[in-house]
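In the laboratory, one determines a bound structure by crystallizing the protein with its ligand and collecting diffraction data. In a computational setting the workflow is compressed into a single prediction: the sequence and the ligand go in, and a structural description comes out. We illustrate the idea with coenzyme A.
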Amino acid sequence: MTACPTLETERLIMRPFRDDDLNSYAAMMDTPELRESLRIPDGKGRTEAWFEMAWWRGQWELRGTGNWALEDKESGALIGRAGLHNPEREDWPGVEVGWALHPDKWGLGYATEAGAESIRYAFEDLDEDCLFSTILPDNHRSQSVAKRLGFVLVETKVLSHYLHEPHGIWMIKR
Ligand SMILES: CC(C)(COP(=O)(O)OP(=O)(O)OC[C@H]1O[C@@H](n2cnc3c(N)ncnc32)[C@H](O)[C@@H]1OP(=O)(O)O)[C@@H](O)C(=O)NCCC(=O)NCCS
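The predicted complex, in structure-token form:
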């Protein structure tokens, strides 16, 4: 049993990460597109991908928030992650909605589909009033997902976990 619920959308199963996701998740996190967009430093690889999977599972247990593994209903393949993120950081804005897909699956609406279900879950099941998304200014694809889902940019500022560039703080209210 885990605190991470399994949800279903039209094309996706949103479920807890499992240990046997590691090969797919590590491969996705190692694509040049994700390394660039998420500013993943050289030297971070499979070990950190596993830490991240454990981090999502742990956050569900401790806080009731976390990312889901996104499984394509048709193929059963892991195609990305999305969901909620509320780490212990003094300047973190609140419950964040986030998304990352394998580049082979970009341009098909999966992030918007999973993002919409994440928002529904946070507003209806967690009773949150306001959600955020922190997005780097050059991440136009992520900004488009946020806009499609109804987020608006409210602020741009440097956050303490990543001092090299400012993040846009996007917000959506219930
Ligand atoms: C951010 C990221 C998840 C966006 O992926 P994406 O494929 O552009 O977003 P979506 O899955 O919502 O797909 C939207 C695209 O699918 C199209 N689309 C097709 N069917 C669709 C549908 N049913 N619903 C919505 N969009 C649909 C849209 O028109 C849009 O097309 P475009 O790429 O020509 O603009 C992806 O670029 C990524 O994984 N980046 C690396 C990780 C990252 O940066 N994460 C965010 C950190 S802040």
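The first strand starts at residue 7 and ends at 8. Keep in mind that any predicted model is a hypothesis to be tested, not a measurement.
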